[in-house]
Amino acid sequence: MATGTTVIGVGSPVMGDDGLGLHVLERLEQEWVLEDVALIDGGTWGMKLLPDIEDADRLMFLDAINTQRHPPGTVLVLEKDEIPLVTDHNKLSPHQVGLQEVMAISEFRGTLPGQTCAIGVVPAVIDIATELSPVVAASVDACIEQVIVRLRLWGHTCTRREVAIGA
Q1: What is the SS3 assignment for 48?
Q2: CATH number for the domain running over 5-160
Q3: What are 101-145's pLDDT values in tens digits?
Q4: Distances (CA, A) of 152 to 36, 79, 133, 141
Q5: Other CB atoms closer than 10 Å to residue 167's CB: what's the count?
Q6: In the chain, which end has fewer C-beta atoms inside a 10 angstrom radius, N or C?
C-alpha cells in the first residue's frame, strides 16, 4: 500500500560531509511542518530501506552527492533517471549494500516510484568527523530550499515553524 511522499535522509554522521542528508533531515523536522510527508532517518541502513522505498508514491533522497563535475558546496537536484544505479563493484564485502544497490533492486522489481529524486550537496570532506565542512554547511539552507520547492511542486503544504525568541 503506497504511503504518499517519503523523504529519506542517508549517510553517516561520523564521516564529515557524508552526514549531510541526516543534517538536512533534522533541520526539516525542526523547522518545517510538512503535510503528508514521511521523514525517515535512513542512516546507512541499506537493504532495510527497501520497504520504505517500495511503499512510497513519491520518493526523495537527501544525501551528499559526489560528482566529479561540480565543486564542493554545489547544491544538486537529480531526477530519477539521473541517479546512477550502478556502483563500484570493488567492495570489501558483499554485505556492503548501499543506497544505489537498493534503488537498483527496487527498479528491477518495478517498484521504484516514478517520481524519485535526490537532493544534496557536493561534499568537500568524507573522513572521520562529526561536523560538516564549512563549504557544505554554508549550502545547507539552499539545499533545504530545494527540498521545499520540490515538495510544493508535488502538492504538499510546507509551512515554516514559528521559532520562539530566545529559544
Answers
A1: helix
A2: 3.40.50.1450
A3: 888 889 989 999 999 999 999 999 989 999 999 999 999 999 999
A4: 11, 16, 29, 17
A5: 5
A6: N
- Residue whose grid cell is 542528508: 21
Alpha carbon distance 20, 73 (integer Å): 11
- SS3 call for 63: strand
Amino acid present at 65:
I
Cα 47 to Cα 97, 104, 116, 147, distances in angstroms: 7, 11, 18, 24
Name the pTM for this structure. Answer: 0.89
> Going by C-beta distance under 8 Å and a sequence separation of 6 or more, which residues neighbour residue 40?
6, 7, 8, 9, 25, 49, 52
Q: What value, to the nearest 5°, has the Cα angle with vertex 47 and ends 25 and 84?
A: 75
DSSP E strands, the chain: 5-10, 32-34, 37-43, 58-64, 75-79, 115-121, 158-160
Residue 128 neighbours by CB under 8 Å, 6+ apart: 14, 15, 16
Task: Please report, for the chain, the start and end positions of each structural domain, with discontinuous segments joined by +.
Answer: 5-160
Burial of 86 (0-12, 13-18, 19+ CB in 10 A): exposed
